[in-house]
Amino acid sequence: MEIWELILLFSSAFLGGTGVFFFKKDNQNRLKLVLSFSGAYLFAITILHLMPDVYSSGDHQIGLFILGGFLLQIVMEQFSEGIEHGHIHKHSHQHYVFPLGIMLSLCLHAFLEGMPLAQGQHNELVFGIALHHIPAAFALGSVLMQNNLSKSYVLTLLVIFALMSPLGYLLSYQIGQGSMGNIDIYFDNIMGVVIGIFLHISTTILFESSVDHKFNLKKMAAVLMGVGIALIGFFMH
C-alpha cells in the first residue's frame, strides 16, 4: 500500500470541493476544459491499460461486469444528477431538499473506484481517479452551497466524500492481505465494474463538454493532452 496514493485520492477530492469557496462565480469554460482533459485521460487509460488487463485472464464473462458497471452508473446518476462528470444544476430552495441521494450515490461511486487500487501497480488509474474527482467535488460543493448549508457542514460532507476512495482502497488492501478473505478471485470482476463506470463517465464528458458536440481549439487541445499523457504512460509502462 502506497501512502502517497491515499493522500492524492483524498486531497484531489477535498481541494476540488473546497475550490468552490474561492471561485464565487461559475466559470463554465475552465470547468469544461478540465472535464475534457480528465474525460480523455480516463477513456484512454481504460482502453490502453484497464481493459487489456482484465481480459488477459481469459475470463470471457468479464464483459458482463463491464456492462453491469455501465448500467450501475446510469442508475447512480438518477440520484447524483450527473455530478460525477461535473454537472452543476441550479435549484430553487423551495423545491430542493438536502441532496441525500447525491451524497449516497457519489460516495458509493468513489468507494467502488478505490477498491481495485490495492491490487498491483495502477498508477495511471490513481491519477485518473484523482483527476476525475476534482471537477466532481467542485460540482458537489457548488450544489451544497446552493442549498444554503453552512460552510462547516459543507466541509464535513466534502471530507466524507474525499474519504470514500481511500476507504475503498484500504478495505480491498485488507482483504488482499488475507485478514478479511481473498480478493484475488474477485479483483477482475471489481475492475470490470469500475471499467464500465469509467466508460460511461468518460464518454459522457467527451460528448457533453461542447455545445452541439463541436470542439473548439482549446477543448481539442485539452482532449489531445489527456490522450497524450495516457499514451506516454502506456509506452513507458
- Based on Cα principal axes, name the global outline: globular
Helix content: over 70%
| Secondary structural class | mainly alpha
Q: What is the chain-wise order of helices and strands? A: HHHHHHHH
**What count of helical segments does DSSP give?**
8
Outline the biggest β-sheet. none
Q: How confident overall, as mean pLDDT?
A: 80
Global Rg: 17 Å
Number of strands: 0
Number of individual domains:
1
The unreliable regions are 91-97
Strand content: under 5%
Oligomer: single chain
Distance between the termini: 20 Å
Feature tags:
237 residues; mainly alpha
Q: Can you describe this structure?
A:
The chain is mostly helical. It has one domain. 73% of the residues lie in helices and 0% in strands. It has helices at residues 3-18, 28-55, 62-80, 100-114, 123-146, 151-176, 184-208, 217-236. It is globular, with a radius of gyration of 17 Å. The model is unreliable at 91-97 (pLDDT under 50).
Write the layout of secondary structure elements.
Layout: H1 3-18, H2 28-55, H3 62-80, H4 100-114, H5 123-146, H6 151-176, H7 184-208, H8 217-236
Helix pairs in contact: 1-5, 1-6, 2-5, 2-7, 2-8, 3-4, 3-7, 4-5, 4-6, 5-6
